[in-house]
Design goal:
DNA polymerase, domain 1, 6-stranded parallel beta sheet, Rossmann fold, phosphoprotein, 2 domains, binds magnesium ion, binds 6-O-phosphono-beta-D-glucopyranose, 10 helices, alpha/beta
Length: about 220
């Protein structure tokens, strides 16, 4: 008999919508302003990481930044966020990635809980712009956790709130640190992206249009 999970916990940026690209473009713009170049390969390590930690990694590329005060760092982080907000100002439900809304509908139809597990402080705003807020029983964003991914806290906080054992949860992620966080939480991890970065996922798809409810549940059942 099929065993259904009790919750799906979705990462936001790069899973529900392609805001991962806007984060990249905003960081790239900031890097340019700092006189350093930053490519997509470098960006992989920023996926799923908090705003301040991402800034620190970019500043490591610029020797002159070592002397920057905390206030100056905060100003740079705000500058990046201003660039990002310009991008997300434009988004609407057309920016939901293929297959995501039908997956959310299927999960809801099975009366399975849905949560968000995002490292972003802008998560609620993005969900609202996509008109997806009503699907979510609980939202964990950067304001609700002290330890970011790859620490499992983002995912365990969602499961704890919903009062669901971790082994009954499925987490979906596009970031290597995100898949690591799901695995550390003892949840079933679904990776969305390339094997090169996400080989540690329990189940991997190349893109969101391949996310099928029945297949995810089947793979989950094969593991439990
Ligand atoms: C994560 C993204 O979801 O949120 C990162 O993958 C981003 O790229 C992080 O830096 C923090 O986002 P924000 O919106 O709080 O700056
Ligand atoms: Mg992501």
């Amino acid at each position: 008999m099929t065993h259904y999970p009790k919750a799906f916990i979705f990462d936001l940026d790069g899973v529900i919508t392609d805001t991962a690209e806007f984060h990249f473009l905003a960081w790239q713009k900031l890097a340019q302003e700092l006189g350093v170049s930053m490519d997509r390969q470098f960006n992989e390590q920023l996926k799923g990481i908090s705003r301040m930690e991402s800034l620190e990694r970019i500043l490591e590329l610029t020797p002159s930044s070592r002397s920057l005060s905390y206030e100056e760092r905060l100003r740079l982080a705000n500058q990046k966020n201003d660039h990002y907000l310009e991008f997300i100002d434009l988004i609407n439900p057309d920016y939901i990635l293929p297959g995501i809304e039908s997956l959310l509908k299927k999960i809801k139809a099975q009366h399975i809980k849905i949560a968000l597990g995002s490292a972003s402080k802008n998560a609620l705003k993005v969900l609202e712009k996509l008109l997806l807020t009503n699907y979510f029983d609980y939202v964990v964003d950067a304001t609700k956790v002290t330890k970011g991914k790859p620490n499992p806290e983002t995912f365990t906080t969602a499961a704890d709130f919903l009062n669901i054992p971790y082994s009954e949860c499925i987490g979906l992620e596009d970031a290597a640190v995100g898949v690591e966080a799901i695995n550390k939480a003892n949840m079933f991890s679904v990776g969305v992206g390339a094997l090169e970065h996400l080989s540690h996922a329990d189940y991997l798809v190349g893109n969101t249009s391949e996310l099928m409810f029945e297949e995810i549940v089947k793979r989950y059942n094969e593991k439990i």
